[in-house]
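Crash report, auto-generated. Payload:
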Amino acid sequence: MPSPTGLIDLRSDTVTHPTPEMRRAMAEAEVGDDVFGDDPTVIRLEERAAELLGKEAALFVSSGTQGNLVSLMAHLARGTEIIAETESHTVMDEAAGHAVVVGASARTIPARPDGTMDPAAIAAAFRDPSDPHEPITGLVALENTHAHSMGQPLTATYTAEVAAIAHERGVPLHVDGARLFNAQVALGVPARELVEAADSVTFCLSKGLACPVGSVVVGRRDFIWRARRARKLLGGGMRQVGVLAAPGLIALRDGPTGMIERLADDHANARRLAEALAAMPGVWGPEPGIPLDPARARTNFVVFRVAPGRRAAFLESLRGEGILMVEYPHETIRAVTHYGIEAADVERTIAAVGRAAP
Ligand code: TLP
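Recovered output after restart:
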């Protein structure tokens, strides 16, 4: 489907518009009061999500941020600490909800280029629970795909290794799987296997899966009950919300009528963009002075840099051609492919970058 705005908007996969079928499903959704547990469409979506990820239960929430926050609230007590990646969304981009709402500190570990944290560093980051000076480690969190490493997918083996470290110490593992289905498609491994070892997972419907709103949290039944209570506390108990859950049921269908399989197109588009950018003068990879390695475009992100001090002018020049990218940390630029971006848009983008970068 061509872009509904006429722009080539590569700022994020959050800009996707719902499909015509999703809009029809929203109009026709069977609804009820979901705080009473009466919305049949929400119930179907939650059942589908739990089944798909191999967990006992699920909870539909307004956003990925809310999904992570209710998960933290359900897992943690005040004065506890999470171990998470230094630039993970939960630590960097959720307005410090872990601190402000949950009352938890974050002990952070930087990611390696493949998006993983060193397991030995995770093990070493656990606090001594017998020392009254220290916070109590209450949760380990992973992000899959890992955004700041150019959307690297984390394997089931790695997640199981981290889960074992956490579980040996009596601590649960949460996965921020905002783009978990991108990892499924990139690795060719079902999402349920990727998160089998995790105690809870948040995944987003409103990114590459093209739904207008919403994320889903999955986990054990008792965890989901606590998360539901936390959602209520945050004012996130919604009423006839089947109108928002209906697109999710379309997105999560198996096969070509759903929105998961087609993520492969986004990945191919990102790879094509990265390959072309890597060959251009004036374009580098995310680390200063190092060439862009197109093999790192494994999902739908391309992160790169232009000459020092040129970023704003570069983005402005693209904008003048109707192409949007976004500033990313450490002087980098991010381009994200998604539903609505087609191969021809990528070619137009490559030509525009060729004019703007040198
Ligand atoms: N990410 C957005 C921005 O907030 C940065 C984006 O454009 O990438 N986890 C991860 C890994 C995310 O990337 C995001 C959103 C979230 C959680 C939060 O999801 P929402 O935006 O639904 O609260």
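Post-recovery validation: The chain has two domains: 8-15+261-356, 20-254.
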